[in-house]
Batch of 2 targets.
Target 1
Amino acid sequence: ETGVTQTPRHLVMGMTNKKSLKCEQHLGHNAMYWYKQSAKKPLELMFVYNFKEQTENNSVPSRFSPECPNSSHLFLHLHTLQPEDSALYLCASSDGLAGVLYDTQYFGPGTRLTVL
Amino acid sequence: DQQVKQNSPSLSVQEGRISILNCDYTNSMFDYFLWYKKYPAEGPTFLISISSIKDKNEDGRFTVFLNKSAKHLSLHIVPSQPGDSAVYFCAAKATQGGSEKLVFGKGTKLTVNP
């Protein structure tokens, strides 16, 4: 596997379910990101992890809970979501080396989430 | 309020001609800009970037122009090819202050007709 992979690619869940999205990067990067893309809206940054530490939480509701056990894996735990949370969730990674702010982000294919 | 705007949701050009995709931004702190391309069922792919110390960056058929005074950037693709048909996202970042946050536009869907 190369690049950034995400599983599952599609997920349908009820409002009372608990599910998790998984992201794995095979690029040796140190920074990982979760983005949300809703219909007709720009990509919105949700969380940033750099060297496994969360460095940014973009005012995301607590029903979304990220976890970064190591630099290669990133999870997004979902609990009691709302129908308006239905969207494409994209994971990305970048070098994230300290002081390097011009690094390029590489995206996974995304998980298409539908909340019923 | 959107800080990065791509006012044209779609653009259609003939193969071999030039495609020009436009992007405007409002935040004067933005000093690094990127273009991403996205095919259906795939994540965005990095295409080209430009720092605010430059006004032009070229990579093969792709050139990005930056007009800081107008807070405007554009992506030129010449000659356009049918394989360039995709959604193009403009993104911006304010590197001073250490933020890793990229702000994206809504995207422009480019169709290159054979």
Target 2
Amino acid sequence: SQQGEEDPQALSIQEGENATMNCSYKTSINNLQWYRQNSGRGLVHLILIRSNEREKHSGRLRVTLDTSKKSSSLLITASRAADTASYFCATDAHGNEKLTFGTGTRLTIIP
Amino acid sequence: NAGVTQTPKFQVLKTGQSMTLQCAQDMNHNSMYWYRQDPGMGLRLIYYSASEGTTDKGEVPNGYNVSRLNKREFSLRLESAAPSQTSVYFCASISWGQDLGNSPLHFGNGTRLTVT
């Protein structure tokens, strides 16, 4: 089974609203990354948070990490139509370079 | 600077045929990965190579073999293709190190494989 599970599987919101998606994982990690994938394209790196960090910001993105609950959240503020995409979390298992992805959240921004 | 290059972009195989997906990166990355992406399943790790000369199984290795030919190249081979291997395949590379925060996973553009 996959290491990460995103929640919800799909999310539709109005443009300008905030979007929050969550990622849960199973084993201890070194880092957690979030990626975006537009339809039919490859994945684009958004942000990385290390296991000793609790929160990180990048522009309109805010990521939190709770290692005790083995979960992370990605918040996109003031959403735009261009944010419509699938979002994936990726984790590297502690002690090796095995990098696995979650199942993804499909985000739709309604203009 | 091409990044990660995958070939071919599209391929149609008949059941039982074999083929090799090629991947090359020019960023001097030490680790390379093969993923497959199916609708509703996200990306699943097939095999990875943490460094030149090493390969390890991922989540779904059955039916596949890999070769880390050198630091640049990491190929994925289907010895006897099956319809269940119809998918989009992505190769990726990364260089783990102290500057990991500025060194994300770089992806190729994918290979769309159909097995009939």
